[in-house]
Amino acid sequence: MRYGTNDVLKGVDFTARRGEVLALLGPNGAGKTTTIEILEGFRMRSAGEVSVLGSDPALGDEAWRARLGVVLQSWRDHAKWEVRELLAHFSSYYREYREPWDTDELIAAVGLAEHSHKRAGRLSGGQRRRLDVAIGIVGRPDLLFLDEPTAGFDPEARREFHDLVHRLSDENTTVLLTTHDLDEAEKLADRILILAGGSIIADGSADDLSREMSTEAEVKWTRGGRRFVHTTMQSTRFVHDLFLEYGDEIADLEVRLGSLEDTYMALVRRFEQRGLQEAR
């Protein structure tokens, strides 16, 4: 994707499989939104080939669009509609192409059963976000795009949403989400894509990426009533040596491997350092 003489995306290449949950991560300005909008058919690419559900998004017709679900970062319309009538209305658009969710089942699935007769404008921020998700999945999409889906969710709502994503994935819905919540990405995604400088710089599961970067692990234990903490690149060898030396004196052992956040920061820093070296 080129704006003037500036290439904001260059050689972005990945494949999403049926029923897979992918998280697209990257710094602000990396090109995540542009990538998603090209895949959704909302923005025309400058060059390259794109296939989404077997079609070029730039040429997608109504039947193709009926197979997509989109949850934007925020909505500002529909304030005067009641939740149930709004979802029933959206559901009617899909019947020509596919079998949508039953409206009451959908309302229950997103946790809005007690608010089904409220106007959208009277919902709390978290409840409105649940409605956004319901609108995005009302047509039982084959492919679902989620942009910061749990912004404004409390912990309980977030957990329920994660269960819903896993349910959709089990039903063979492919999910592509963008989020700044790396803990959420680690819990939800089968595969992580990291976009930086307009290109994919990493592609793999959270564990795969962690092993690739060999991020430090944190080992905690107690001995003789004292608490110890040690960071190491070789946690298995360190724990082995620890037990060889102290045996049963070791208690309350914990090994915390590098998190996705640690891996993400390491990968982005490595990319930025390479860019600086090439610039010199």
UniProtKB/TrEMBL annotation:
Residues passing through the membrane, by range: none
Top-level lineage group: Bacteria
Source species taxonomy: Bacteria, Bacillati, Actinomycetota, Actinomycetes, Pseudonocardiales
Primary location class: membrane
One family name in Pfam for this protein: ABC_tran
Annotated PANTHER family: ABC TRANSPORTER ATP-BINDING PROTEIN (PTHR42711:SF17)
Entry keyword annotation includes Cytoplasm: no
InterPro entries: AAA+_ATPase, ABC_transporter-like_ATP-bd, ABC_transporter-like_CS, ABC_transporter_ATP-binding, P-loop_NTPase
Topology versus the membrane: Peripheral membrane protein
Keyword annotations of the record: Antibiotic resistance, ATP-binding, Nucleotide-binding, Transport
Compartment(s): Cell membrane
SMART domains reported in the protein's UniProt record: AAA (SM00382)
GO molecular function, one term: ATP binding
Protein name: ABC transporter ATP-binding protein
Domain ABC transporter: 1-222
Transport found in the keyword field: yes
